[in-house]
């Protein structure tokens, strides 16, 4: 299980130190929740902040763009040092074009689905993806409760991946903790995003290790 702590739950007054801390604690990736206050009811940070933080670690920068019309900023996030760039199916008018552009920029491409969005909406584009991010909460805020229906969705995506012989990463974001990690792994999740569970624990290392099953 890859563990990608979300800095959405970190202390924003000392982000560089927080990233260094989770790096040393064993984080596999650094998850970057970019919110524009339009697609989701919150505003976080953009490419300039990510560029400034890039020098703090060599770990994978996993950018989750919860923004409208993400095509406008793909070049900026690529230049900032993001390794994965994930866009929302619900925010893209021409999803294939967006994914193709991310790959042209030399980055791994992911698509995220909100809880109410069907897997059928991305079935045709699965062969082009490096990752599928299933939201297990409604996006916009950290610390929400895991939506139980997500388990079945993960299992369904795992079957689709196996039947088509694809190799994209199945990532889950929202309400992940030490109590549901085993079931998430059993259903087929390969990478978890954990914000408040990691940063809300005084021992980052212990929190991260409890998710690596």
TrEMBL record:
Name the reaction it catalyses: D-ribulose 5-phosphate = D-xylulose 5-phosphate
Question: Which EC number(s) does UniProt give?
Answer: 5.1.3.1
Organism domain of life? Bacteria
Please list the residues that bind a divalent metal cation.
Answer: 31, 33, 64, 173
Q: Which residues bind substrate?
A: 6, 64, 140-143, 173-175, 195-196
Cellular component, GO, one term: cytoplasm
Xref: CDD domains: RPE (cd00429)
Cofactor field: Zn(2+); Co(2+); Mn(2+); a divalent metal cation
UniProtKB keywords: Carbohydrate metabolism, Cobalt, Isomerase, Manganese, Metal-binding, Zinc
Q: Which SUPFAM superfamilies match?
A: Ribulose-phoshate binding barrel
User: Could you give the cofactor binding note from the entry?
Assistant: Binds 1 divalent metal cation per subunit.
Record-annotated active site: 33 (proton acceptor), 173 (proton donor)
The Swiss-Prot or TrEMBL record annotates one GO molecular function as: metal ion binding
Which pathway does UniProt place it in? Answer: Carbohydrate degradation
What NCBIfam families does UniProt report for this protein, alphabetically?
Answer: PRK05581.1-4, rpe
Task performed by this protein: Catalyzes the reversible epimerization of D-ribulose 5-phosphate to D-xylulose 5-phosphate.
Family in the record: Belongs to the ribulose-phosphate 3-epimerase family.
Annotated protein name in UniProt: Ribulose-phosphate 3-epimerase
What organism is this sequence from? Answer: Seleniivibrio woodruffii
